[in-house]
Design goal:
It is a single chain. With 559 residues, this protein is mostly helical. The chain has a two-stranded antiparallel ribbon. Helix 18 runs antiparallel to helix 19, helix 22 runs antiparallel to helix 23 and helix 24 runs antiparallel to helix 25.
């Protein structure tokens, strides 16, 4: 009896020592991971703006120049994420168009996320070394580079900060049973949703955590989740509304049967690239022209993973980890495609935690008495990820290098068009046309490529009009192509034809620049009342449109 008591005391003492060790060492581990991550991403502080979307989100975005209610009502790039826009507005007020200000905030949020993840994994009951390597792999993984180095992806690092913070407060609520922690969790979850709609997965993540904590699935548990599901539903509706003109399904009625294969293929690609991050790119086009045979095997691979998870369900970390991965990445899978890329590396920013956590726990158990082997395997993999990420970060220093490398790894008409626009912005029209022609050669039936090339015809307005007409022929609902055609007519002095083309475009979609151009035509023809009317229409669509507001101010004195 004494021996049992002595053993119990030893176990209690051991547990107490372990808790104290964790309490006193987590911040040391966190500091090391933060320093490594800062060193890795420090070069980004000297980088400029990206040619991909940074113009839309920052450089030409009048919305961020002041804090107004329009931030909360205006989608940007067919996305509704007002809290992200607010954060960019704060950056603008500190540094205006100094790119370093925005990069600094992205990096700071990434470092915060690293510490939050460390604390969450510890709170879930993992050891300090599992938590440490989870945070390290999160901090340095090459697939996460675009979320940190790309200013436009502020939404990734911001929504993840609130997401992880809300998980942490939820775990505090479960332990303390205090409702103030629950209310804080609801508030943080709302902030995460307002930063990026991908956070709609949060209610399911909470249910998974309940399962991990072995809570009974009572009516109380389900009632707790009502606020979170309600918020997710509201954000889902807002997102569908914002993206209604941007949904692009690459599958025709004849090929819609391929969708399950695309979904499975995308999942497998995420798994593979997280473990072996090679051939990275900004865009991963749908392989429609030449579907690889292994895509048809993807559902079998998914079935094998699910069977593996079921087979080893007694090892709860596998169910939890893979469940978390699927929950976080599922809103981005091509059930109903948005855009033209089958996957995006940034979508793994938070989801990757679910893949590496069970692997680390398994390695720790496998080498329970062989610590050197555990550190050798995890350390070697971490070093490989660090070097790969460092090389990937280097690509972001220069738009030309980044875009050309992306197109080399994953040939994409959209990257070619971005290169064309970038060269055009530098005044290099010849190179712009080369890349526009390459995009058209790769995919001749894409209206956007002809729309892009029309901008680089120089003084040959007839050639520009032919490209605008081709874009409209391929996509009769292409509002911007009609506006471009109207601009070409206006530059040719054919005002009547310009009015017709512009009104056709605006009938499809209200666009501030279209109203602005009509207003300028009326202003040129001394029809001041009509000009004022259309400038007001431009401001109604885009309240912070600088040119339209200046035009109205100039016309204010004219009666």
């Amino acid at each position: 009896m004494k021996k049992t008591k002595s053993t119990s005391n030893k176990q209690t003492t051991s547990t107490s020592v372990q808790k104290n060790t964790t309490a006193t060492s987590w911040w040391i581990v966190g500091l090391v991971v933060v320093v490594v991550s800062f060193f890795l991403y420090a070069p980004t502080l000297n980088y400029g703006f990206s040619a991909v979307d940074d113009g839309v989100y920052v450089q030409q975005n009048a919305l961020i120049t002041s804090i107004t209610k329009a931030i909360w009502t205006t989608p940007i790039a067919q996305n509704y994420h007002p809290l992200t826009m607010l954060s960019l507005t704060l950056d603008y007020n500190f540094g205006e168009l100094n790119a370093a200000t925005y990069h600094r905030t992205n990096l700071l949020l990434h470092l915060v996320n690293t510490i939050l993840l460390l604390l969450v994994v510890l709170k879930l009951g993992a050891s300090i070394r599992v938590a440490g390597f989870s945070a390290l792999l999160f901090a340095i993984h090459p697939m996460h580079v675009e979320s940190v180095a790309w200013i436009s992806e502020r939404k990734d690092v911001l929504y993840t900060a609130f997401y992880l913070a809300s998980i942490l407060t939820y775990l505090h609520y479960l332990q303390s049973k205090k409702w103030n922690w629950f209310l804080v969790t609801v508030g943080l979850a709302l902030c995460s949703l307002l930063a990026k709609p991908q956070a709609v997965s949060f209610p399911l993540a909470l249910l998974l955590i309940d399962w991990w904590q072995k809570r009974a699935f009572t009516s109380k548990l389900w009632l707790e989740k009502i606020p979170f599901f309600a918020l997710a539903l509201g954000m889902g509706i807002a997102t569908i509304y914002a993206q209604q003109n941007a949904l692009h399904d690459p599958l025709s009625n004849d090929t819609v049967w391929l969708r399950p294969f695309f979904i499975s293929y995308t999942l497998i690609l995420y798994f593979v690239k997280l473990l072996v991050p090679l051939q990275q790119a900004l865009f991963y086009p749908y392989p429609l022209e030449q579907i690889p045979f292994y895509m048809y095997l993807a559902p079998l691979a998914i079935a094998a993973i699910l069977y593996f998870t079921y087979r080893f369900r007694s090892q709860r970390e596998w169910v939890f980890g893979l469940g978390f991965f699927l929950i976080c990445v599922s809103p981005t899978l091509p059930f109903k495609p948005f855009g033209t890329s089958i996957l995006a590396e940034r979508y793994t920013y938070l989801a990757a935690v679910g893949l590496f956590l069970p692997i680390l726990i398994w390695l720790e158990k496998r080498f329970e008495n062989e610590a050197l082997k555990f550190y050798g395997i995890t350390g070697t993999f971490s070093l490989i990820m660090f070097v790969t990420a460092y090389l990937q970060i280097g690509l972001w220093s220069d738009n030309r290098t980044l875009l050309k490398k992306s197109d080399e790894n994953q040939p994409s008409v959209f990257v070619k068009n971005i290169l064309a626009n970038w060269y055009g912005s530098l005044g290099n029209v010849d190179s712009a046309r080369i890349y526009s022609n390459a995009a058209i050669a790769q995919k001749p039936d894409l209206a956007y490529s002809y729309f892009t090339r029309a901008h680089f015809c120089g003084s040959n307005l007839n050639l520009a009009k032919l490209d605008a007409d081709k874009a409209i022929a391929l996509d009769p609902q292409y509002a911007l192509a009609y506006l471009l055609k109207g601009l070409i007519y206006a530059q040719s002095g054919k005002d009547d034809s310009a009015f017709i083309a512009l009104r056709k475009g605006l009938a499809i979609k209200p666009i501030a620049d279209g109203y602005l151009l009509i207003g300028e035509l009326y202003e040129k023809n001394k029809q001041i009342d009509s000009a004022r009317y259309y400038f007001k229409k431009a401001v109604a669509v885009e309240p912070n449109n600088t040119v339209a507001n200046e035009k109205l101010a100039n016309l204010a004195a004219i009666k």
